Amino acid sequence: MNWIQSLYQTYDNCREFVGVTEVGSAALLLPLSHTTQNAHIEVTLDQNANLIAARVLSKEDQQTLVPCTEASGGRSGSKPTNHPLCDKLQYLAGDFLNFGGTVTSGFAKEPEEAHKNYLALLGDWQRKNPHPKIRIVLDYVKKARLVHDLVDQKIIPVFAGGSDSAEFLHEWADKESEPPPIFSALPAGNSPQDAFVRWVVAIPGDPEPHLWRDRSIWESWNEYYGSTQDFVGLCYVNGEETTLAEQHPAKLRHAADKAKLISANDGSGFTFRGRFTDNDGLQTCGVGFEVTQKAHNALRWLIARQGRRLGDQAIVSWALTGQSIPDALVATDDLFDEEDDFLNEGLNPGESSIA
Q: Domain span at residue 332?
């Protein structure tokens, strides 16, 4: 497992870059148990859990760091697992169904389940590892008026007739007039009911109201989520008894990438059907939760920061020492021409890791 060990070590070596966007680069080294999502709406709450502002986000400002679980970080299918804080309206809005919102098909038998699951996870986080900003978001969400407030703020367009009886407007049919900004913010084919929401909490004297940039929020979530994990075994990467990963991250090459480097047995769906018969995967090797999170986050960051792409293939080279190394795709003759430069830096040209 040299590749995963190298990536794990790379994350630890570069931990000062966690959560930092470098100048001129969109690459982001993620904190543990976090992912990135494109948000479409930003909601600002005051210290009393009242919505005081909302805005539609331009495509350049949409990338948002959000806490996630193992299940939500790689979610897909007809019944996607909710994120714990920022998510789509079907999870966040208690009045989503009142405006004619349509949940994903897996929730069709119990449409309220998506919102209930979100409230349960956010509430459990706040109970077990309290944070003042999480409490404010929870208090607001419990009011079940998010869509109503977004309609009042002219963020979400609805059929005419008053916000209490109105329904989501799914497309803009008037070709003679400019559509509301939300239609430009969403991916093609999506409706305003599909909007993803991120939170700002404005507390007097607090230096960081943007929850996705607040390190205390990252730490609070990591502490809470770590306390909920009880699948313990031998990690074959670091040789320690530790909490093992039950699922492994995706989104390595880009935000829509569902391919995984490490898969697992399925009991349904049969995405992967292995030869092992146990339910916990211990008939094969185990990988620690922290190890797989760090390794995948490091690889995702390296690909975005310095990777080379050939269609769907991504190639990246790096040195654990942080020293300069040859371009992985440079012509052999050119590499030999540069050999003296690398030797002068004290680096063997073969000293690199390639994934």
A: 315-355
